[in-house]
Amino acid sequence: MTDSPTTISMYERIGGSAAIDLLVDRFYDRMDTLPEAKTIRAMHADDLGLIRDVLKRYLSEWTGGPKLYTPEKGHPRLRQRHLGFAIGDAERDAWLTCMRGALEETVPDPAARQELDRAISGLADWMRNR
Ligand code: HEM
Fold it and tell me: Is the pTM of this model over 0.85?
């Protein structure tokens, strides 16, 4: 029997920081160009550079990789941080359209992709505030 760790993080399963970087870049590329994402794109700064970096840090930590978010920003309080933006079903759906496309493009393992999709969809549901 080989000595293997009992739990492998989602971060490791999908390929670590390179995979997170690619996922987030493809996500914001979609938000920047898809007509159905126009409303949520307009909520963001003109320059998406900063938020790309923040989401990479957040997802690194959230998937069980290096803690790159909380040391800099403190407790995520993600719902609270979104209260200033009107997020209803339509905004959630637009956000998830961008994320699902990015997941399809960058996470080849179907099981990992499905698990991530489910977990992120739950988070996006919870972010609604209208
Ligand atoms: C459901 C629809 C969502 C919409 C419309 C939305 C929109 C936004 C907007 C407008 C910002 C501010 C960007 C800026 O400062 O320029 C933001 C920040 C952020 N969002 Fe979302 N978001 C959504 C869901 C999510 C989800 C599901 C996650 C996590 C997987 C997430 C993670 C983040 C993070 C980490 C930040 C940065 C917070 C900080 O300042 O530290 N968002 N979001």
Answer: yes
